[in-house]
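Please predict the structure of the following assembly.
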Amino acid sequence: MATKLAPDQQSNPAKELLDGLNEDLRGEFQAVIMYRLYASMVQGPYRQELRTFFSSEIAEELAHAQILADKISAMGGTPAAEPSPVRVVHEAKAMLETALKAEIETIERYVKRRTQAEDAQEHGLAAQFDDIIADETNHRDELRQMLARWP
Ligand SMILES: [Fe+2]
Ligand SMILES: [Fe+2]
């Protein structure tokens, strides 16, 4: 006789997606805080430009958080209320490197999440991930461009 798995041990695409979306939401809250802190803290000859750049990221990350929180709630889940840990650094170059690392990890998560959304029959969400992935890719590319000829 086959052993029956308890409900929480069964493979459940919607549950996996929900858990993943909450991980993503914590990541977006982290990004909002990170860019806010870096914009305020950055010092040195490039402060004005970097402050403008970091500040400009906040609205897009918040828009991503809105999409995620709305979807988590619509799927019957509870949106995460805490960010992933924020790395506080003090040198402008370290800020750019830390942000670049975070954006690369974020893109990897969203590529995986888009597949999970398809598996869970959430095709509209999967389409929204295309726009989010495009945004995060722009963030990554701009950070790389700034770091490319850093003295
Ligand atoms: Fe984002
Ligand atoms: Fe981003």
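The helical segments are 13-41, 47-74, 92-119, 123-148. The two ends are 68 Å apart (CA to CA).
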